[in-house]
Amino acid sequence: MPKKSWSLATQMWVPVVALIVVLTITAVLLVGRTLRLIDESKVQQATQQEKLELSLKLHDWPEAHAAVSMAVALASDEALKAPLAEQQKALTQRITEGLARMGKLVSDSEERGVMGKVQAAADDYLGASAKALAGGADGAAWKAQTAASQQALAQATESLHALQERQESALRADISGARLKSTYAVLAVVIVVAIAFSGSTFYLVRTIINPVKSAIGLAEHIADGDLTREVRVDRGDELGDLQKALAQMRDGLADMVTKAHEGADSVQTAAAEIASGNMDLSQRTETTAAHVQQTNSAINDLGVAVRHSAESAATANQLAQSAATVAQRGGEVVGQVVSTMEQINTSSKKIADIIGVIDGIAFQTNILALNAAVEAARAGEQGRGFAVVAGEVRSLASRSAEAAREIKTLISASVERVEAGTRLVADAGSTMDELVGNVNKVSDVIGEISASTAEQNQHLSGVAASMVQLDQMSQSNAALVEEGAAAAESLKEQAVKLHQLVSRYRVEGSARRAPAPAAPAPAPRPALAKASPKPVARPMPAPAPRPAAAPTPAAPAVAAADGDWETF
Question: Which GO terms describe its biological process (predicted)?
Fold first, then answer.
């Protein structure tokens, strides 16, 4: 049987598994036996059918053999006699083989006795028939010699066939009986399994219902306020865990009720302490509100000064940005002048090169004119006019060369002056770049000052808004103090009701407690007048205010009241 220390699942599964195992084993045995009986019955039926058919053939073959043998004895034509002799021989072989096969199939003594008679009668008949035909007997003689053995063989085969029919009927009766026995065995197993399952189910129901009823009774006693009833734990399964849980619940409720009695007393005492502390808190709240208003006024003045500084810094930032813009434009103009001077210098150098080319051409022309004059002098009178022309050309070439040298000297001086001017303009451009950089730095510094001043203005606005909210909260706290006094009175009333509620429960080692006497309520103080907060210029949205920590009383009377006062 299942043990109480087992789990409910184990207790419920063990009988089921045991029944399944028994049913499985029984089913396997019954199925095996049934299959074995079916196989044996099939073999027996096949063997019996073969013996029945063979016994009938052993009865028919001798008659056919006798007819063929008579035909052989009566036949006078050898052509007709030969095939009849072959048929006779085939029938003789069939009879012989059939007798041999039947001899192997017979199994009991009765069959062997009848088979012995059939074998002897067949041997007599076949021997007599062969002897008569060998002696050349005619039909009448053959019939006379084989009549007795033929009749004995017919009687023996009829007895064999009748025996096989009786055995077939007996085999069918045996198979039906075996099937009926198997059916009875299955019914018996089903009945035994049903009885065992019913018994195990009844046992499980009884072992489960009794602890459940006990647990219900304990729950009813607890609901009626009786926490003194003991819980007996005598099981190791889930029901035992339920009993343990109920016992723990009863102990927990008893401890809770005891602590509730003590807590109600402490709550009443703490309510009186809270009312007294509320009065002190009201006075401190009034002082705090006055200080907050003074601080708010000072912050407003500081905010006005910071805003003036922010405006001045913004104006200076704009001027610095304008100066930086002008300096940048001047730097761009100087850069353009430097580029123009460099182009002029380049053009002057190109002009000097061109003058040098002209001077060279004048020199070559002078040499050519000199050669022409020499040739004209050699020519005499014919070359006189040509010599005059050559002289004029030399004169023009000399003046051209002189003018080119003067122009080259002037261009060289101009190039030097342009280069000096270019250097001066480049120095002026560098100076303008430095000026622009310094102006930008000054603009950045002024911008940072302006941004810092604006940020300070924003923070001061937030602080001013927070101070306004703090002032409002201080005024609200003064009103909340009065509400706290009313809450303390309500708390005391709830403590009295709690006494009345827990007094209906009975705990071991203690009697019913009476409600504690109500403490006198403190006289309420008049509500504080709320001071109007000063308006703040441009208030910024402030973050959500954090709850302020309540002051700790100087000397509380009860330790429990001390914790409640700190929480309040």
Answer: chemotaxis; signal transduction
